[in-house]
Amino acid sequence: MSVPRVVAVAPGSPAEQAGLEPGDEVLSLNGRQPRDVIEWQLLCDEADLELELRRGGLALDLAVAKDEGEPLGVEVHSALFDQVRTCDNHCEFCFIYQLPPGLRQSLYLKDDDYRLSFLYGNFTTLTRFTEVDLERVVTEGLGPLYVSIHATDPTIRSRMLRNRRGATSLRWLRALLDHGIEVHGQVVVCPEVNNGPVLEDTLAGVLDEYPELATLCVVPLGVSRHSKA
């Protein structure tokens, strides 16, 4: 797991007053190593931080005097410090497969990470969601989240995602809603797959099984000239 690296320090902030500098690597805050910027912000909201740093290869301890909830005044290099949870679905309609060659490498990364759903509104299928993830989402109130439903029929959803876990992963949607997490849903309509009667059944299924959804968007399949499907 990587550690957060400071890329900017706000003038006059507690971080600047304590001597934090761009390029510093933060090994821990009050004895804890954050996994992502969500946990980073929760830790930074605490008062009077004790930071363990690495600067130019040398270890350094730094005390930051601040009030609880006062911004630390630091921008870090990434939203995730551990490994991004990649998508193991193989949807023919995935926009990643329709990108032209030669773009920056990060654009070709398929993620299915609930943290990026919370931070940036990325849609997740929940096929890699776990009990540990549910506990964290509920405990920290990580909402809203954005979930790709596509079909409420388990067989059709599994076939669309090309992942057998697609047939069962909507149980996590039910669990999220049961715990009061705000969730927005999405259905990408693919001709001769989940349109027509299947779409009607999906809409009825959402009303019946997930009535607490904040919103449900139904969007047509988009295909670029770079699609290989």
Task: Give me some keywords for this one.
229 residues; 7 helices; three-stranded antiparallel β-sheet; single chain; elongated; alpha/beta; three-stranded parallel β-sheet; 27% helix
* Strand content range: 15-25%
Shape designation: elongated
Compressed to H and E, one letter per element, the order equals EHEHEEEHHEHHEHE
Low-pLDDT regions: none
Mean pLDDT level? 94
Query: What is the helical fraction, as a range of percent?
Result: 25-40%
Q: Give the N-to-C terminal Cα separation.
A: 35 Å
What does this entry look like structurally?
The protein has 229 residues and is an alpha/beta fold. The protein has seven helices and eight strands, in the order βαβαβββααβααβαβ. It has helices spanning 14-18, 37-44, 114-120, 131-140, 154-161, 170-178, 196-209, and strands at 6-9, 25-29, 49-55, 58-64, 74-76, 145-148, 183-189, 215-220.
Write the layout of secondary structure elements.
Elements (H helix, E strand, L loop, with lengths): L5 E4 L4 H5 L6 E5 L7 H8 L4 E7 L2 E7 L9 E3 L37 H7 L10 H10 L4 E4 L5 H8 L8 H9 L4 E7 L6 H14 L5 E6 L9
Parallel strand pairs: 6-7, 7-8
Antiparallel strand pairs: 1-5, 2-3, 3-4
Give a brief outline of the structure.
The chain contains 7 helices and 8 strands.
